[in-house]
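Standup notes
- DV: blocked on the single-chain target, sequence here:
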Amino acid sequence: MAASSFNGNMKKALAGLRRISLEVVLGRLASQISTVIQGKDKPTYAPNRDDGDMCIVLNAKDIAVTGRKLTNKFYRWHTGYIGHLKERSLKDQLAKDPTEVIRKAVLRMLPRNKLRDDRDRKLRIFTGDEHPFHDRPLEPYVMPPRQVREMRPRARRAIIRAQKKAEQQQQGDTYLSRKKRNKEVEPEVSV
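- DV (later): unblocked, structure below
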């Protein structure tokens, strides 16, 4: 039913069907999914067209988060009645419906424009391995390697300076020890 209400080119969307298996951190996964859904990974990307692929996310229950987000991150909504601001922690939301956690993370990374609803329909999330797309060939999506800089530049320079200073001290110690040896040897020769 949701597939029939999709306004874009469904043949194109289904042609690039991507299967994403989890065991990664929520935010990194959501940013990659939003890139694929928008079509930013294609050379034909244009911000006013919806050329993205359809994403099928499997094993949503295996999502990981860093830090203390399980207890400190809250999803809030208002019922419309006075004083009815509801909230649910990430841990409770994962226990109730883990697919909604990924959906909200991806939707909040998409631009807020008229294409957002169509892009949301291209995202299918399943809690386990079972999905209704067995008849179509699914292309597994491999997350690109994470580019992490080793250290902040200032801290890295400080470590390099400390290493150079230690090397100079070692060279200085060897130079001084050679001098001391030569001085000890010289008085014996001169006497």
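- Follow-up: DSSP finds seven helices and six strands in the chain.
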